[in-house]
Amino acid sequence: MRRRSAQLKRIQERTASWVRSAPGTYTYLFALAVTSWSLRGVDPHLADALIRSQSTNLDNLTDRPLQVLVASAFWTSGPDIPLRLLVRFTLVMAPVERRLGTRRTLAVFAAGHVFATLLVAAGLSYGVQHRLISVSVAHASDVGVSYGFVAVAGAMTWLLATRWRLLWVAALAVSLSVSASAGVTFTDVGHLVSLVIGLATAPLIKRWLANPPAGAVLGGQQVSLAWLHRLNRRRSGRAADGTAEPSAALARRH
């Protein structure tokens, strides 16, 4: 019982320490959880109207652009959103914040959210004006964190060791492709734009890593993919003692 209690205490301490090391990530997640859960207690029609009023659609961007650009980043929809975002932000945004600091991480997030939204809106406006797409898109609901998150995930590329960068970008591209497999929408285009924005931060990331802020607990360090390192070491060890030969032969036969 004492051992279990001690283990639980260590887990709680490590969790608290991790959360404190990425305050921007978890404060933002808390705000998202509050707004998401608040939608569950209201009439569906009212919830839809609320989401629509905060959307970055063409109507709202024309009437009150600054308000909806900010507000749209604090609303999501769907019953599993808080838990899903907790996992994604813990695996991506928190590690980035621990190395770049809160302000810089939020700056990358904001750049992805704002610029991807505006570029997509410009494309939609052109399409509507030239009757290439339906005018109904001007009233569509479009809120969420995905543009900003994808930008941070793209920026994370430059925090990885060089040998893992291409694999990471490929994984992001596959993930975006899977989400668009049912049919490409303007949101899918926005995800691609935000990924490019994140990748374009390479010069900034290099500069920031050389001058990490005092508040970044792992400032200047690369993101460690420990399980990939262990897998690579095991493979290297098998190759060194000859145990990898059968699999190599099998690969040649195939």
List keywords for this structure.
single chain, 254 residues, mainly alpha, Rhomboid-like fold, 2 domains, 13 helices, globular, disordered C terminus
- Going by CATH, the homologous superfamily of the largest domain would be Rhomboid-like
Record field, number of beta strands: 0
- CATH top level of the largest domain? Mainly Alpha
How would you sum up the global shape?
globular
Domains counted in the coordinates: how many?
A: 2
- Say what the CATH topology of the largest domain is: Rhomboid-like fold
- Residue-averaged pLDDT, rounded? 87
Structural class, from secondary structure content?
mainly alpha
Which bin fits the share of residues in helices? over 70%
Q: Over the alpha carbons, how many angstroms does the gyration radius reach?
A: 22 Å
Taking pLDDT < 50 over at least 5 consecutive residues as the criterion, the unreliable ranges are: 243-254
Number of helical stretches of at least 4 residues? 13
Distance between the first and last residues' Cα: 53 Å
Verbal overview:
The protein has 13 helices and no strands. With 254 residues, the protein is an all-alpha fold. The chain has two domains: 222 residues, Rhomboid-like fold (Up-down Bundle); 30 residues, no CATH class. Helix 2 packs antiparallel against helix 6, helix 6 packs across helix 8 and helix 7 crosses helix 10. The longest helix is centred in the middle third of the chain and has 28 residues. The protein is globular.
Topology:
Blueprint: H1 2-21, H2 23-40, H3 44-53, H4 58-63, H5 65-71, H6 81-100, H7 102-129, H8 146-156, H9 162-179, H10 186-199, H11 202-210, H12 226-241, H13 245-253
Helix pairs in contact: 2-6, 6-7, 6-8, 7-8, 7-10, 8-10, 9-10
